[in-house]
Amino acid sequence: MNMKKEPIKRYSQAFKQQVVREYEAGASATSLAQQYGIGSHTTIKKWVKKYGCFGFRTEKVVIQTVDDQVEVKEMKARIRALESALAESVLENRMLAATLTVASTALKLDLKKNFGKPLFGTSGRRSK
C-alpha cells in the first residue's frame, strides 16, 4: 500500500512577518492564504497576533429589522434600569446590615438572633 505523505510546512519568521505586513497593509487573510499556499487564514491570524502591530481585523456586521433595533434599544434600557435598581438594593442592604451591627453593639444584644422575640424581664407581652 503506497501512502502519499503530506509535507509538513514550516515557515520562517521573516516570511511570517512579511505576510503580516501585507495583511496590515489591507490584504485579506483568506487571499494571503491562497496566494502563498498557507493552510488556513487561522494560521495567519496566529501570526498577526504574534507579530502584528494592530491585531487581527474583524468586522461585525449586524443585520436587523427596524423592529429588532427598537427591541434591542428597549432591552438595553431595561438592563440599565435593572442594574440601577440592583445597585440601589445592594446599597440599602449594606446600610441596613451596618445599622443592625451598630445597634447590636450599642444594645449589647444580638439583634439578628433575637429579632422579634420579647426582651427578658417583661411580662411576656410586647410593648406597643
Describe this structure in words.
It is a single chain. The chain has 128 residues and is mostly helical. Among the domains are: 13-51; 66-112. It is built from five helices and no strands. The chain has helices at 13-24, 29-36, 41-51, 66-107, 111-114. Helix 1 (13-24) packs across helix 3 (41-51) and helix 2 (29-36) packs across helix 3. The radius of gyration is 33 Å and the shape is elongated. The termini are far apart.
Give the topology.
Blueprint: H1 13-24, H2 29-36, H3 41-51, H4 66-107, H5 111-114
Helix pairs in contact: 1-3, 2-3
Order of helices and strands: HHHHH
Q: State the helix count.
A: 5
Number of strands: 0
Query: What proportion strand?
Result: under 5%
Spans of at least 5 consecutive residues with low confidence: none
Shape summary: elongated
How would you classify the quaternary structure?
single chain
Distance between the termini: 98 Å
**What is the radius of gyration computed over CA atoms, rounded to a whole number of angstroms?**
33 Å
Q: Kindly report the average pLDDT value.
A: 84
The helix/strand class is mainly alpha
Largest sheet: none
Proportion in helices: 55-70%
